[in-house]
Amino acid sequence: MGAERMADKTVHPLETLRQYATALEAAMTVTLAKPRQPAVHQLRTMVRRLEAQMELLEQLTALPVPSSDPGEAEDVRQRLRKLRRAAGSVRDLDVQRAMLKTDSSLPRKSAAKLRERLKRIRGAKAKKLQRVLTKQLPRVAGALEQMIRTLGTANGLLVPDLRLVPLVERWSRSKAESAPAGGLDDEQLHIKRKVAKSARYMMESASGSAAANRAAEHYREEQNAGGLWHDWLDLKATSRKYFGKKHPLTQAAAAQCELARAEYVKLLGQT
User: Fold this and answer.
1) For the chain, domain boundaries
2) Closest by alpha carbon to 235, among 260, 212, 210?
3) Which of 199, 200, 176 is nearest to 188 (CA)?
4) C-alpha angle with apex 95: 90 to 97, nearest 5 degrees?
5) What is the dihedral of CA 168, 170, 174, 178, to 10 degrees?
6) What pTM did the predictor assign?
7) CA-CA distances (angstroms) from residue 197 to 5, 17, 192, 200, 222?
8) Which terminus in the chain has less CB density within 10 A, N or C?
């Protein structure tokens, strides 16, 4: 144990928060100029990472609440949620269009037709995202800067990775539903997917730590399996909206959704 302790890595949670804030501002600027698929994906990812890092900071007992003014942190969260939702609506369409183009299990002609329809919707959603960014870019930057300034007294906070790993694991267990994996409904599976994503990002803030990397990989597998199931769930709903429940495309998406769900549930039962 002594040798293992000597190899512990130190995590700098506030410095990571600063880095994420800078990366988010850059992603917002790029997406505002051209809301292409990679830029939108990066924007949503950085929002998620910032939200997860704020959650991590709250879990560290050595650190006060992320702001001496609770309303300050909540203001940041509300602005991040607006960005995430606007970016997410575009990103979801990008994912569905990619599935319609590449998945051979879907009827080709119907998939191409729906893909073209989603392209037009995506254009409108992207313009809405740009409007949100125009309004929120200076406000988000200012709110983050103020929150980080308030947290300045925690500049010296250092956390051993062997403390961070069990802390995040306890947090993820407290957030996820405790029912057996096979008995989870779709809403509970959705919660587990989101928790796994946040836990992964928290673990990845301890880059260079073998223990955190192993834990992050575990959560990444859960996130990916849950994400695939949820993508098919969304595509099934989209196809049903435009073509109806009994259309071959809807039925094909539903079949893939059930397969992905079974794999996701199986993975959860193994972890």
Assistant:
1) 10-156, 160-271
2) 260
3) 176
4) 95
5) 120
6) 0.88
7) 28, 17, 9, 5, 8
8) N
The enclosing H or E element of 183 equals none
Distance between CA 177 and CA 6 in Å, rounded? 36
Q: Helix, strand, coil: what percent of the chain each, to 5?
A: 80, 0, 15
Strands 159-160, 10-11: pairing kind? antiparallel
1-11 pLDDT, tens digit each:
343 443 457 77
List the beta strands (DSSP E) in the chain. 10-11, 159-160
CATH of 10-156, one of 3.30.870, 1.20.120, 3.40.50, 1.20.1420: 1.20.1420
Q: Is 177:191 a contact under the CB 8 Å cutoff?
A: yes
| Local structure of 142: helix, strand or coil | helix
Model confidence pLDDT, tens digit, residues 13-68: 888 888 999 999 999 999 999 999 999 999 999 999 999 999 988 887 544 444 44
CB-based contact 28:137 (threshold 8 Å): yes
Pick the closest to residue 233 from 196, 186, 267 (CA basis). 186
Q: How far apart are CA 10 and CA 19, in angstroms?
A: 16
Are 203 and 216 spatial neighbours (Cβ–Cβ below 8 Å)?
yes
Instruction: Record the tokens describing residue 63, joined without a space.
Output: 């650190």
User: Which among 165, 167, 153 is positioned nearest to 59, based on CA atoms?
Assistant: 167
Two tokens, residue 168: 């995040």
Look at residue 155 and tell me whether its pLDDT is greater than 60.
Answer: no
